[in-house]
Design brief:
Structural class: alpha/beta
Shape: globular
Helix content: 40-55%
Radius of gyration: 18 Å
Order of helices and strands: HEHHHHHEHEEHEHEHEHHH
Number of strands: 7
Strand content: 5-15%
Number of helices: 13
C-alpha cells in the first residue's frame, strides 16, 4: 500500500489537557490532517467516524503493534505470550475489573514505553504499520471511508489505540485524522502515564462531540462505523450508524434498530486472524491492560529505559 505523506499540522488554538486527550487533529494532539482533494466541494458539516480494530483492520492494531515491538526486543516473546493470555482471559471473562484495577490501568497505562523518546516509537510505528498492518486493512471498509472522502466529507479514526499509531494509520489511508488514547510526554519522552481517559466506550462519544463542536459538524449528518457493542455510545450519537463485521450483540442491536450491517469477513479470513481477534481484538484498555497484567505477573517494573 502506498505511503501517504504526512502534512503540516493545523493549529486550533489553545486547548486544555482533557481536550488534548480526546481530540487528535490539533497541533497539541500530534495528529495532523490530510488535505481533502481540491476537486471535491467540501462538505463542512458532514463527516464519518470509524473504529479501527475489526472494523477498519483485521484483528487488533495493538496486537500487531505489540508483535512488532517484540520483534524489536522491546520486550520478550514470553512477555508477548503472557500479554496474549492475559487479554484472552480478560475478554472471555468479559470483566473489566474493579474500580481500583481501572484506576491502576489508567495510571500505569503505557509503562511498556516509559522512558522511550516519542520520535523512536513513532518511527517504529511507521515500520510496524508497513510490515504487519497494511495488508490487514479491510478493503470493503476502506472503500466505505473513500466514499465519504469523495463526497467532500472528513473521515476520522476513533480508537483506544495510542494516538501516534492511530494517526499513522489514518495518514497511510489518506484519512483526515485520528482520535486516540494520549500518552503523557515530558521532555520528548513517554512517562508511562495517560493524559485523560482511555479512548473507549463513552469516551469515544465524548471525543466525537468535542470534535464536532470544534469543527462545526452536524452530528445528524454524520456516520459512525464499528464492529463492537462497546461503541454504542458513538454509534447512537450520529445520524447514521453502520455495523461493520459486527459482534453478536451489535448485530442484534443493529437489526432491531434498522442499522445497516456490512460484513466483509470470510471463513478463511476469520481463521487467519483468529488469535489476534480472540486475544486482543476489542481491547478496551488496549496494551495498557496487557502491560499492567505483565507487571503484576512478573512482579517487576515493566519499564524500558
Amino acid at each position: 500500500m502506498p505511503r501517504v505523506p504526512l502534512r503540516g499540522r493545523r493549529s486550533a488554538g489553545p486547548v486544555d489537557e482533557e481536550t488534548r486527550a480526546h481530540v487528535a487533529g490539533t497541533a497539541s494532539a500530534a495528529a495532523a490532517e490530510v488535505a481533502a482533494p481540491t476537486a471535491v466541494a467540501p462538505d463542512r458539516t458532514g463527516a464519518a467516524f470509524f473504529d479501527v480494530d475489526n472494523t477498519m483492520m483485521m484483528g487488533a492494531s495493538l496486537f500487531w503493534f505489540a508483535r512488532g515491538l517484540a520483534a524489536r526486543k522491546y520486550f520478550t516473546a514470553r512477555d508477548m505470550a503472557g500479554f496474549v493470555w492475559q487479554q484472552a482471559k480478560f475478554r472471555i471473562a468479559g470483566n473489566e475489573g474493579s474500580a481500583d484495577d481501572i484506576h491502576a490501568i489508567r495510571e500505569n497505562g503505557l509503562a511498556f514505553v516509559a522512558g522511550r523518546p516519542v520520535a523512536e516509537i513513532v518511527q517504529a510505528s511507521e515500520e510496524i504499520y508497513d510490515e504487519l498492518m497494511a495488508d490487514r486493512i479491510w478493503a470493503g471498509t476502506r472503500a466505505l471511508a473513500q466514499k465519504h472522502l469523495d463526497a467532500g466529507q472528513r473521515v476520522w479514526l476513533v480508537t483506544a489505540t495510542p494516538v501516534e499509531l492511530a494517526s499513522i494509520i489514518a495518514h497511510r489511508l489518506g484519512l483526515t485524522g485520528a482520535l486516540g488514547t494520549v500518552a503523557e510526554v515530558v521532555d520528548g519522552k513517554y512517562t508511562g502515564r495517560l493524559v485523560g481517559e482511555l479512548m473507549h466506550g463513552p469516551a469515544k462519544a465524548e471525543a466525537v462531540m468535542a470534535l464536532a463542536a470544534r469543527e462545526g459538524l452536524d452530528l445528524t449528518r454524520c456516520t459512525a462505523y464499528s464492529d463492537s457493542a462497546n461503541d454504542l455510545p458513538m454509534l447512537s450519537l450520529t445520524g447514521t450508524a453502520v455495523a461493520v463485521n459486527p459482534d453478536t450483540e451489535l448485530r442484534a442491536i443493529a437489526r432491531s434498530r434498522g442499522w445497516t450491517i456490512r460484513d466483509f469477513r470470510t471463513g478463511r479470513k476469520a481463521a487467519k486472524i483468529g488469535v489476534p481477534t480472540v486475544a486482543a481484538a476489542a481491547l478496551s484498555g488496549g496494551l495498557v491492560g496487557g502491560a499492567l497484567a505483565l507487571r503484576r505477573r512478573n512482579k517487576l517494573p515493566f519499564q524500558l529505559s
